[in-house]
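Practice problem: predict the structure.
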Amino acid sequence: MQVTETLSAGLKREYKVVVNQAELDQELNAKLADLSKRANIKGFRPGKVPVSHLRRVFGKSAMAEVVQNTIDAKSKALLEEKNLKPAYQPEVKLSESEEEVQAVMDGKGDLSFSVVLEVIPDFEVKDHAGLSLTRHVVEVSEDEIAETLTRLASQSKNFEDKEGAAEKGDRVTINFVGTVDGTAFEGGTADDVALEIGSGQFIPGFEDQLIGAKAGDDVTVKVTFPAEYGVADLAGKDAEFATKVTKVEAAKETAIDEEFAKKMGFEDLAKLKDMIKERMGSEFAQMTAMKLKRDVLDALDKEYSFDLPEKLVDAEFNGIWTALQGEMNRSGKSFADENTTEEDARKEYRAIAERRVRLGLVLGTMGEKEQVQVTEQELQNALMNRMRQFPGQEKMVIDYYRKNPGAMMELRGPIFEQKVVDSIVSKATVADKTVSKDELQAMVQDEEEAPISAA
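Answer:
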């Protein structure tokens, strides 16, 4: 194998590799010789097919395998010989000349190809033992427990028949037929629908027009479907609903007592409060961890500055930009609605992509140095959590991840990343600071960070 470096600029490397025809022919003969021992061809005894005959029949297909195997093996040897750490799977380019390629396939020419890649930047991992961090914590208050109890009670409230007109908060039972331009549309007709006025279940404006109605009343409800409505044929259209009110019910206040706790499946009210406190504590702890992680990443971002593999940044930016455009299309918003331009938005998200790639490389290098490992059990737990997001489709989820190694790497990345962050936190000076729930929520929402998914 002859190797010539044809490019070395920044992180970019390119090498021309030449494998002579004699070596290819040797590999082809070895492959055909092995095939002759197993081939079962009419006119020949098993295991006695001449190599010369196999070359005529299978020569080109066998040579195609030899060429692919040679490219794989020589590319790997090149990386080892040059001690290169590619930032992504190197790109292999064969000769653009059809004549040269055909000569190789006919066993009459040397194999020539180029290996193009970017290497992982070389940087020194710093000592973060002196890092000072603040852990923002929230204590679950009695008021917050009471607020949650009140919300649970409102969600499980009972209703009783009411003689008078419907008010906000009452529940009405209705039959309706919806039309657009006088024509009924699919999904616009229903009977015995229970609707709590003010719940926001129906199209904006629908529920308010039922205020004042009594059982037995006929009401013509006029509304306009939202521009972003899920059914394209109805989006933005004016509609009328011929509505019959068959029942009006008033909400009966639910007492928060021992009976309510038992209705919720708990032994007593104290046990229900304990459950609420535990769940809220877990929720607050997750937000605390998210904020602390973001602070660690911010600190690392300030500490490191180095050239980035352009292809990695491009891939990260394209992923972000595609997601942004999809969200804008769904919401119907433009860059002007966000008080920006496409050019400025591209600059902003390019900077975000660069930050993610830089932090991914830093965390990956630190994790390698610290010998951070993701266990099989941790991967299985992550897979179980993913399965819970798709009830009834668990087998499909398992099959997808088992058949797609890349998807399993997506599960591994965030686990690896968090373990490296935890390692940094364990060596840092961390001071706890008590804040309110609203303050912590604002911090997390303002500074939401997507997974870096370090390797």
